[in-house]
Amino acid sequence: MDKPYKIPESVLVVIYTADLDVLLIERADKPGFWQSVTGSKDSAGEALFDTAMREVFEETGIRVTPGECRAPNEVPSHHLRNWQLSNVYDIYPVWRHRYAPGVTRNTEHVFGLLVPRDIPVVLAPREHVDMLWLPWLAAADKCFSPSNAEAILELPHHAGPDSN
């Protein structure tokens, strides 16, 4: 059976520490392409918050949990925040085959996730081959995606004392 087409609505999750260090992960299919966690909705009815939680876990092993955190890889769900920002962009031609014929644009919703600096990160090896923590400005400079860089540049506005 053919794999279903990706839904052209996705999340971008900027994972960061209290010191505004940002986690970047390197794509397995495009070495040198560094990014934050990204991923499309699994179904049209999937809530964006659920998409963000799922993608964070799939790509980093970090579990966002609504209850008490019991494991070193867990963070409370109130640390995941929808920044109420979205980007509409052209899908890179190299990835356009994943979408239905004629789909060329994606809507990306930006989230932030505050984590402890020492949280264990386990990459999905089919998706990412390396990770690093960088100060937010350096992280923005390293991203291959302009919308990802712009989201990281918004971090100081969303990481204040009232944000989480």
Automatic annotation (TrEMBL):
The EC class name is hydrolase
Q: Which Gene3D superfamilies match?
A: Nucleoside Triphosphate Pyrophosphohydrolase
Q: Which PANTHER family match?
A: ADP-RIBOSE PYROPHOSPHATASE, DIHYDRONEOPTERIN TRIPHOSPHATE DIPHOSPHATASE
Q: What is this protein called?
A: Dihydroneopterin triphosphate diphosphatase
InterPro entries reported in the protein's UniProt record: NUDIX_hydrolase-like_dom_sf, NUDIX_hydrolase_dom
- PROSITE patterns given in the database record: NUDIX (PS51462)
Iron listed as a keyword:
no
Q: Could you list this entry's UniProt keywords, alphabetically sorted.
A: Hydrolase
Enumerate the spans annotated as Nudix hydrolase domain: 4-156
Question: Do you know which SUPFAM superfamilies this protein is assigned to?
Answer: Nudix
- As recorded in UniProt, its EC number(s) are 3.6.1.67
Against Pfam families, the record matches this protein to:
NUDIX (PF00293)
Query: Molecular function (GO) terms listed?
Result: dihydroneopterin triphosphate pyrophosphohydrolase activity
